[in-house]
């Protein structure tokens, strides 16, 4: 039986990029070596993932990433309608997937953002296709005190419609767009167990409420540059059947490109659901900034956000 390497990225305080090795189950192979639970089919991978909590449902999108199971994300360049055909980067479905090459944290565009993700490498290219990680907790710890004070209490609007719009227009079909209303997330999050703080940003982070739009974009871009300094980046080079797990509450990640027209890259991901919103109410209110990015009517079914005086803002 093929043995898996299971790695967990925590973004701990000893170093911004630290791996922990999971021992896995107590069973052994014929040589007496410890091995993790076999994760060679979607059922076993899903069951293993559920040990950490309930799983999110995958969003409906042009890439058909939910084709295997609602709780299992298919990240590959194999045509879902023709299993042996490879998709190059000029295919609309792969243009959509290229959004994963932006620094992001999974599901920050949902009203309840994800807690953790598990990514399983099934087939990997001979070069490229790595995954990189950085710690938003370390980023917070290394910010000047004046900048921390500026960030505390702030709320950021996150949207996958915004983040994908920075790549190409019309990557979502209208019926999918309606399910993806922008949401509000705290800019600074604290771990509920140990109280450690982290900034909460990434490609889905669009603008900061209560700030001039250009000023908020500059601040978010500066925070991302600070977080992703080269000396803070850990790169994982995949081998078949590696399994990597990370904490989405304090870790950003991104995939790296590879020759998709020539080589398969087949990955499976499960996402552990979060416990609740980071800001109340979780849904954002439409502003002129949305025009041209968020279609009219998206988010209209969610309760309007009001000020203490009862007026929408």
Query: In angstroms, what separates the terminal alpha carbons?
Result: 58 Å
Q: Provide the gyration radius in Å.
A: 20 Å
Arithmetic mean of pLDDT: 85
SSE string, helix = H, strand = E? Answer: EEHEHEEHHEHHEEEEHEEEE
Helix content: 10-25%
Structural class based on helices, strands and sheet pairing: alpha+beta
Shape: globular
How many E strands? Answer: 14
The order of strands across the largest sheet is 2-1-12-4-14-3
- Helix count, DSSP H or I runs of 4 or more residues: 7
Largest sheet, if any? 6 strands, mixed
Detailed description of the structure:
Helix content is 17%, strand content 20%. Residues 17-38 and 304-313 have low confidence and may be disordered. It is globular. It is built from 7 helices and 14 strands. The strands form 4 sheets. A 6-stranded mixed sheet has the order 2-1-12-4-14-3, with helices on one face. Strands 11-5-13 form a 3-stranded antiparallel sheet. Strands 7-6-10 form a 3-stranded antiparallel sheet. A hairpin with a 6-residue loop joins strand 8 and strand 9.
